[in-house]
Amino acid sequence: MKQYDTFLTVELNEGQIKAFKKVRNWMSLLGIASVLLGAGTATAMAVNPEFRNKVFFSEPVQAVFANQIDMVSTGLVNPDAQLNAPAVQPAKVAFNLIPAKYSVAETHKSLNPGQKEVVEYLSERYRVSSEALETIVRLAYKVGREEQVEPTLILAVVAVESGFNPFAASPVGAKGLMQIMPKIHKDKFEEISPGDWSALNPEHNMRVGAQIIHEYTRRTGSIQTGLRWYVGAAVSGNDNGYPAKVLGIKAKIDSVYRTGRLVAAREADEKAGVTKVATHFEG
């Protein structure tokens, strides 16, 4: 039995051919536009931490983030543990993510009026929940005092490096709030908590970051040059305006802090005045 191949021949007139070419051209342009848009978005997220956080760290995850950072800060969660790891009874927890010097009670210590104002400002500016920022601000003031680094400088570096995302990680291996390289600064982590540390732990990360800033500032003789070293400009030679950006944010945080303290002091004076007048009339 013979087999025959059947060919379907469609004849198109000139108008149909032109229409077909237009459709093909438009599809090609849409494809190119999609590639360019994707590349542009990827580039924007790579060079702009704030934009990246808005995309991947938006409002719907803020409640989860606030809960996670509090749990990490109080040693209840090991951020490096596998998600499917078997549950461990509290009495047998093997991880101690917070050094003894930072107790659980201190994670809930009240903020002063200036710190509260800073939390409100940073929460609005960086779109991070105030609950999470309370923990970070509280840590910054405690760590800054103990490591002899201005707390607002620490907060400014955190703002630039991670946008207040404690679980941030860069392609080159930097991790956490202050984007520390664990392999390079392993000795500092070990000194804080020998054999039991995590670069994603907010307290560990912030303390090591503060130590690095303190050390570089002492070596170079100025905060500006210390920040250049911190960002690696001592090797590359180009800091891309990093010191100016950090110090600009620090100046704003300082201003917000002072405003919060002044407003609270004025309100306290007014309240005391009213009480004094009331007592006078009662007497």
TrEMBL record:
Pfam families, sorted: SLT
Gene3D superfamilies (alphabetical): 1.10.530.10
Signal peptide: none
CDD domains linked: LT-like
InterPro entries the UniProt entry points to: Lysozyme-like_dom_sf, Transglycosylase_SLT_dom_1
Segments crossing the lipid bilayer: 26-47
Transmembrane helix found in the keyword field: yes
Stretches assigned to the Transglycosylase SLT domain: 144-222
Keywords from the UniProt entry: Membrane, Transmembrane, Transmembrane helix
Name this protein carries in UniProt: Transglycosylase SLT domain-containing protein
